[in-house]
Specification:
- The complex is a heterodimer of chains A (534) and B (319).
- Helix content of chain A is 31%, strand content 25%.
- Chain A is of the alpha/beta class and 534 residues long.
- Chain A folds into three domains: 171 residues, Rossmann fold, CATH 3.40.50; 69 residues, no CATH class; 157 residues, Rossmann fold.
- In chain A, strand 1 and strand 2 form a beta hairpin.
- The longest helix of chain A has 16 residues.
- Chain A is globular, with a radius of gyration of 23 Å.
- Chain A starts with 22 loop residues before the first strand and ends in an 18-residue tail after the last helix.
- Chain B has a single domain, classed as ABC transporter involved in vitamin B12 uptake, BtuC, CATH 1.10.3470.
- Chain B is globular and about 70 Å long.
- The chains are: A alpha/beta (534), B mainly alpha (319).
- Chains A and B meet through helix 2 of A and helix 8 and helix 9 of B.
- Bound molecules: adenosine-5'-triphosphate and magnesium ion.
- Magnesium ion binds next to helix 1 of chain A.
- Adenosine-5'-triphosphate (ATP) binds next to strand 2, helix 1 and helix 14 of chain A.
């Protein structure tokens, strides 16, 4: 990963200007302290068009879209809707203009229900502003059926895993019937099947005249669903193309300014002795319903064990139980032969386990802390970072600077609040802390969520490097490609159980998909809940 | 001999009366904090209202004009708090504290300038109870009627308004568009903003609503109960109201019930003081009762109550 933008790689075929853009951003400039996030950026999208906005982490994509949605005030430039200059002072102006947005970091009110979150701001009411709850619920159910995004209308958002929250966030935007839909990484934690279903419908809406701007790091989505592609780097537009005139490799090169290995090769593995052993583990979720049922698994030294599964099948609870964040109802967890079932996270970390949580905002970072403090979390009690309970700021800052450089966290300096980093850079910061600790066992949930292709390559290499030097890795990911390319063994979780186990490389995405949705081939490697560690 | 002397209908009625200023403030504070603004100024707002209400009632001769003045004055000071904590994004605890100090100073100063002496004002005519049913004869039925009449039908208008407000606002918080939006403001104002809700306006109206309720609390205290103003007469009720709000888990009805508990403790201690000779416990001990209850409630039961996630955090609309 290099911070050097390199020479501008432009690839501008004759796309021809789209007729009458419905949304146009002209010469937008947005400056944050120490960062020029948008530097004279102009883009336009027409009705019936899907515009993909690509760019490495911190390129300024979210900033640009937040300007269009009224969440940020640009220092210069203007927003046009239907060819007229409009003033978007707040999101409600954008909504009135027909703009809808799915936010990279979900805008969900945790204690409210799914239905309440979706209708908030556009509640169906009977007389005197009384919410018509039946109508609200029915609309949510209809919407979720129509788009193939399953949600439980009465569940509280705080009880949902990130994948489910993602669905709610998307439904929220669709509920509002926007003419212009901005999607900022809508698919980061969706399964491929959900992505396909969603885009089929979005395509339908687009053919009826919807305009879509989508930000994503998944290049296959871009190739499959977009009409036009704009690439940003370091706050500027550096290229524009159409899917027929490029491929994933060339797009990746345009984004990060160098060749990217989209699928890293791994050397054959020699697993050693067991590091992490989970025996007959059962865990309840936040609603006290069984989430993990009698799961056993082993992670050996020098192997990556991948867990595939549709989100919400117990992966989160399994990880939290291992980390000591959730109390199991049954079973044991041992680390290098020592029972850590009832250890708290502090002891688990001290014993050599690192954890990349699925939700960087909820569990990964203290957003108001600066980068130094965030890097220190979890190690702050140990020398050389502190002695006798007193932090050694100089050592900490030195270490933070080293990791920021190594993990290429794009930031003006190490003293900005983590909240001010771009989404992908926040993710890199979590990785810098957890991988930088040099753990014996790494438990990584959605480790590359929101990372650009260059950063993903780097993280994948790091994970394999950990494995090659004898560490154990438990990888939980929605991203089947990621699970398949990194794992030496793949376990499939369905409804809280491990329903199948495969050797890495000996299974196809389709086969995994079958087990993930509760099916299974007779006579295959499908296993009962017992004997998964065989 | 003791129990039937203590457990009388009048004990419960007096509990409700004593609870009312606290309850009104607790209901107001619940609304305010649900929007994400801490309002520890309830004490000061009540005091301002108590003074303004009495002063205007005395000068104009109209008690109801006094009630209006109490509400207006309290809302005026509440808008100071709103402006400081919403528009200027000041620390809400500091802003509230400033208003409490300001209220103490202002009322003391105005006592001197308006009435020419510190301490207590002349008495005003207090507002009469809404109902005046005749007491009914004798016998068992009469006893029942005395209980019903005293516990349910003996109160002044603002007391009934407090009950109504608690029930109505609890319903509205969970069933109306207003309530849903209010809750979203206190939990995640940016999420509310992104669906088109005006965070500043929502918070402003919530703070003003708490000012309105504090105004009524002050009016109830002076114009319906005591009948005069004394410096510092709110005597911590605004803070007890905040305890009631927490105990009631930021639900208006919960706050009201918690305030009733404090009111009952107060009524009980008043009653017990009368008997302090008989049971040989110094009266100061009973005086402590409501405050001890506050401490116990805050320390113990409240541990698990969760405040709105964004309460106390200023919101910056645009970066
Ligand atoms: N509120 C803020 N305060 C200060 N700097 C900010 C703020 N928001 C964004 N930035 C900076 O602006 C730059 C662009 O950020 P932006 O979020 O637009 O990136 P992005 O292209 O969306 O990246 P990603 O793919 O990681 O989401 C980054 O360098 C980031 O640090
Ligand atoms: Mg972004």
């Amino acid at each position: 990963m290099t911070a050097d933008p390199g020479p501008v790689v432009c690839d501008l075929p004759e796309t021809g200007p789209s007729p009458d853009p419905v949304l146009e951003l002209r010469h937008i400039t947005k400056r944050f302290p120490g960062v020029l996030a948008n530097d004279d950026v102009s883009i336009a999208v027409a009705p019936g068009e899907v515009l993909a906005l690509l760019g490495e982490n911190g390129a300024g994509k979210s900033t640009l879209m937040n300007v269009a949605y009224g969440l940020l005030a640009p220092d210069a430039g203007e927003v046009l809707v239907d060819g007229r200059v409009v003033s978007v002072r707040a999101p409600r102006d954008a909504i009135a203009l027909g703009i809808g947005m799915v936010h990279q970091h979900f805008m969900l009110v945790e204690p409210l229900t799914v239905t309440e979150n979706i209708v908030l701001g556009g509640e169906p009411t009977s007389a005197f502003g009384v919410i018509d709850r039946d109508v609200a619920r029915r609309r949510v159910v209809e919407l979720s059926d129509r788009y193939g995004l399953k949600v439980e209308p009465d569940a509280r958002v705080r009880d949902l895993s990130v994948g489910r929250q993602q669905r709610v966030e998307i439904l929220k935007a669709l509920y509002r019937d926007a003419r212009i839909l901005i999607l900022d990484e809508p698919t980061a934690v969706l399964t491929p099947q959900e992505v396909n279903e969603l885009f089929d419908i979005v395509r339908e809406l687009v053919s009826e005249g919807l305009a879509v701007v989508i930000i994503t790091h998944k290049l296959e989505e871009v190739m499959a669903f977009s009409d036009r592609i704009v690439v940003m780097r370091a706050g500027r537009v550096v290229g524009e193309t159409v899917p027929s005139a490029c491929d994933e490799q060339s797009l990746a090169r345009m984004m990060v300014g160098r060749d990217v290995v989209l699928r890293v090769e791994k050397s054959p593995h020699q697993p050693g002795s067991p590091l992490l052993e989970v025996m007959n583990l059962s865990v309840l979720d936040d609603r006290k319903l069984p989430a993990v049922r009698d799961v056993s698994l082993v992670v050996r030294a020098g192997e990556v064990v991948g867990i595939a599964g549709v989100d919400g099948n117990g992966q989160r609870e399994l990880v939290e139980a291992i980390m000591g964040l959730r109390r199991p109802t049954q079973g044991t967890i041992t680390l290098k032969g020592r029972d850590i079932t009832h250890d708290n996270p502090r002891r688990t970390i001290a014993a050599g386990v690192s954890h990349v949580p699925e939700d960087r905002h909820r569990r990964g970072l203290v957003l108001d802390f600066d980068l130094v403090e965030n890097v220190a979390l979890g190690d702050h009690r140990r020398p050389p970072f502190s002695r006798y309970g007193i932090l050694d700021r100089a050592k900490l800052e030195q270490e933070a600077r080293r990791r920021i450089a190594e993990y290429d966290v794009r930031t003006p300096d190490e003293h900005v609040a983590a909240a001010n980093l771009s989404g992908g850079n926040q993710q890199k910061l979590v990785l810098a802390r957890e991988l930088g600790r040099d753990p014996d066992v790494l438990i990584a949930a959605q480790p590359t969520r929101g990372l650009d292709v260059g950063a993903i390559e780097f993280v994948h290499r790091r994970i394999l490097a950990e494995r090659d030097c004898g560490k154990g890795v438990l990888l939980v990911s929605m991203e089947l490609e990621e699970v398949m390319s990194l794992s030496d063994r793949i376990l499939v979780m369905y409804e809280g159980r491990v329903v199948a186990e495969f050797e890495g490389g000996a299974v196809t995405e389709e086969e995994l998909g079958v087990f993930m949705t509760g099916g299974g081939r007779p006579g295959a490697e499908a296993l009962g809940s017992e004997g998964t560690d065989a | 001999m003791l129990l039937s002397d203590i457990i009388t209908p009048e004990l419960f009625a007096s509990a409700v009366r004593l609870a009312t200023p606290i309850a009104l403030a607790a209901v107001g504070a619940s609304i305010c904090e649900r929007s994400g603004v801490v309002n520890i100024a309830m004490e000061g707002l009540m005091l301002i209202a108590a003074f303004s209400g009495t002063a205007v009632a005395l000068l104009s001769g109209s008690t109801w004009l006094g009630v209006l003045a109490a509400v207006v004055a309290s809302m005026a000071f509440a808008s100071l708090h709103a402006w400081a904590s919403i528009n200027l994004r000041a620390d809400q605890v500091i802003s509230g504290t400033a208003i409490n100090i300001l209220a103490l100073g202002t009322t003391g100063y105005l006592m001197e300038t308006v009435f020419g002496h510190p301490g207590t004002t002349d008495p005003v005519r207090t507002i009469r109870p809404v109902f005046d049913f005749p007491s009914g004869g004798s016998g068992a039925l009469a006893t029942v009627w005395t209980w019903v009449d005293t516990v349910l039908f003996s109160y002044t208008p603002i007391v009934y308004f407090g009950m109504f407000a608690a029930v109505f606002l609890t319903w509205a918080l969970y069933r109306t568009r207003w309530g849903l939006r209010l809750r979203s403001l206190g939990e995640h104002p940016r999420a509310a903003d992104t669906v088109g809700i005006d965070v500043y306006r929502g918070r402003w109206s919530a703070v003003l609503a708490s000012g309105f309720m504090a105004g009524l609390a002050g009016a109830n205290l002076t114009l319906e109960q005591v009948g005069s103003f004394t410096e510092g007469m709110t005597n911590g009720r605004g803070f007890i109201a905040l305890a009631a709000m927490i105990f009631g888990r930021w639900v208006p009805g919960g706050g009201y019930l918690a305030a009733l508990l404090f009111g009952f403790a107060d009524a009980l201690q008043l009653k017990l003081q009368i008997f302090s000779d008989v049971i040989d416990i110094p009266p100061q001990f009973f005086l402590m009762l409501p405050y001890v209850l506050t401490v116990v409630v805050l320390a113990g039961v409240v541990g698990r109550a969760v405040a709105p996630a964004a309460v106390g955090k200023p919101y910056k609309a645009k970066g």
